[in-house]
Amino acid sequence: MSTRILEVDGISKRFGGLQAVSPLSFHMAPGEILGLLGPNGAGKTTAFNMIAGALRTDTGAIRFNGRDIVGEKPWDICRLGIARTFQLSKPFGGLSVVENVMVGAFVRTASEMEARAEAEKVVDFLGLTAKACTDAEDLTAFDRRKLELGRALATGPRLLLMDEVVAGATPTEAQEMVALVRRVRDLGVSILIVEHVMKVIMGLSDRVIVLDYGKLIADGPPQQVVNQPDVLKAYFGERYVQVHA
Amino acid sequence: MRASFTLILGLPLLVAALILPFVVADSYVVHSAAMVLYFAYMASSWNFVCGYVGQVSLGHAAFSGIAGYASVLLFTGLGLSPWIGMILGGVLAAAISVPVGYATFRLKGPYFTLTSIAFAEIMRIWLENTDEFLGIPLKGAQGLTVPPVGGTSFLAFQFDGKLPYYFIILAMLVGVMAATHVMERSRLGFYLKAIRGNRDGAEALGIDPTRYCLTALALSAFLTGLGGAYYAQLFRYINPERNMGIDLSIDMAVMTIVGGQGTILGPTLGALVLHPVGEMVRASLGGHVLGLHLIIYGVVLMLAVLYFPKGIIAPLQRWLTPASKTTAPQTTVTVATPKEVEGR
User: Fold this and answer.
1) For residue B86, what pLDDT is reported?
2) Total structural domains in chain B?
3) Left, alpha or beta for B132 (phi > 0: left; psi -120 to 50: alpha)?
4) What whole-number distance in Å separates Cα of residue B256 and Cα of residue B249?
5) Which residues contact A182 (CB under 8 A, 6 or more apart)?
6) What domains lie within chain A, and their CATH numbers?
7) Which end of chain A is less crowded, N or C, counting CB atoms within 10 A of the terminal residue's CB?
8) CA separation for the pair A129, A116 (Å, rounded)
């Protein structure tokens, strides 16, 4: 149990006639950065939402530190120590940057003073101190994304689920985000990251798993996985694999 | 930042309210001013939940009616002081608000509003058509009168002049503002704003929206109930239409929206502008055009939404705190806030 912070055991989800995720199993070690890859519609976000409690699984179990969390509400899952970010970063309007982060910090304390102190630390960690008192809605898209990460971090997670962190970011911003995610891991947080941008995931992940049509097709170190024929086929199609074989 | 603005605008208003009855001793003026304060109080109570979670309830009058009836019946039936009846009535309103909120807070936007109307109207219509319930004389649409004890009795909530009533509602209004101020800075306040801003995001940060909305609703229902009981004592009379009709619910919502939702002073500003307008129109046109003040409300509401979408408090805030637009002073002021809180 101690070597597995997260165990996903045969979870699946069907939307009407579409089997979005076929029974899927994988696990994560503490402090690991696991990349979840797959082409569009592969079921990445569905799997992600099931772990975060936003979607109910049809079958299977999800164990966090050995405890089954299937059926728990999103807020209870957050309290247990799993935080998530969203693909679309929507800050809480009318609240400043630091106040947005305070909303996350209030999970661990009812005191406004303590929440503010904690939030200021997180804002500093993100490098947003200069903008701490700016209305969160006035932030640039990339700063919003960092704020989204900060809110999640303020809840004091052991496991962080990140959905498409560098989508739409410039290469410089992407680099900054990668560095930030590494620093989050150095705090002892395990990270499950869903990402399209191959370059980012290759450099960042300790291990990647690849989904295609809701099925797990690969699991291993990033360099090894991207050269597997199944993975190439899923991304580039049958002919690409034949030509380059 | 907001606290200092509230004081800049609020303190002069409070001073004016304190000296008004001594400058103009006319009892009609004092009574009218008390009514403005009453509406400011009711709108502030509505704002306590609706202004912060961004859901429009048009059923809040029911809480006023429940507590109003409870306080009057406890006084006439058991001889209990209306002060105690007021509190018990507020608690009853809060207790009833929880199951109602549990069912309706799952709904969003117009569906929430429609069910809130349905709830309040069912209560009102039931009360109007019920003369007696479990042996309690409700007297239907006729309403209940509060028997005079003769003269001034603090315990019986009965006073000879209008002045005591004026100061009681003024104190209540200051109280509800203080409660709103405390709520804004508490976890509850942050959570309500988070739920208003992005419900899914709030849930992912450990917030159970139903739980916190219900907490705020219960507090709001309690506060609204106190206002309902006050109203019954002021007029020594209560009936379903005046104390729990939809007009009252609409007044509470409209005054808050026009004044500025989710702010401490907004509802009071709304009442300060709208109630006198309504009264003047009503007085000058007499009974010729019934409901004209509601039409004026509609027009003022449309103008306010068009020109001041964040309420008439928004431009005032810009004029009175020009420093908040530049970045540097804003930072210092906001950082000073927790120390300020700690100091108290």
Assistant:
1) 92
2) 1
3) beta
4) 11
5) A33, A204
6) 1-81+157-174+187-245 (3.40.50.300), 86-156 (no CATH)
7) C
8) 13
Angle (CA) B316 B322 B325, round 5°: 110
Tell me: pLDDT of B217 over 50: yes
Distance CA B193, CA B138 (A): 40
Report how far residue A30's alpha carbon sits from residue A215's, in angstroms, rounded to the nearest whole number.
24
Question: Which chain B residue has its CA at the smallest distance from A75's CA?
Answer: B206
The total of other beta-carbon atoms located within 10 Å of residue B175's CB is 14
Q: How far is CA A113 from CA A101, A157, B124, B179, B263, in A?
A: 13, 20, 44, 18, 21
Residue B286 DSSP symbol: T
| Exposure string for A162-189, b = 16+ CB within 10 A, e = fewer | bbbbbbebeeebbebbbebbeebbeeeb
A 10 A CB-CB count for B83 gives 17
**Token output for A46:** 């569905």
Structure token digits, residue B234: 């002021």
Domain of B197 in residue numbering reads as 2-343
Mean confidence (pLDDT) of chain A:
88
- Token pair listed for B339: 């120390």
Beta bridge partners of B142: none
**Contact list, B190 vs chain A (CB under 8 Å):** 95, 99, 102-103, 106, 115
Which tens digit of pLDDT belongs to each residue from B228-276?
999 998 888 888 888 888 889 988 998 898 888 889 999 999 999 888 8
Query: CA nearest B189 in A: which residue?
Result: A103
Do the chains contact at A99 and B186, CB–CB below 8 Å?
A: no
Mean pLDDT for the stretch of residues A116-142: 90
CB of B66 within 8 A of CB of B92?
yes
ipTM of the complex: 0.88
CA distance B147 to B183: 38
- Judged by CB atoms closer than 8 Å, whether chains meet at B341 and A113 is answered as yes
Residue B284: is it exposed, middle or buried by C-beta count within 10 angstroms (0-12/13-18/19+)? exposed
Burial class (CB in 10 A: 0-12, 13-18, 19+), A193: buried
Closest CA to A112 of A131, A98, A130: A98
Phi, psi dihedral angles at A27 (to 5 degrees): -145, 165
Asked if A113 lies within 8 A of B338 by C-beta distance, the reply is: yes
Token pair listed for A189: 């947080």
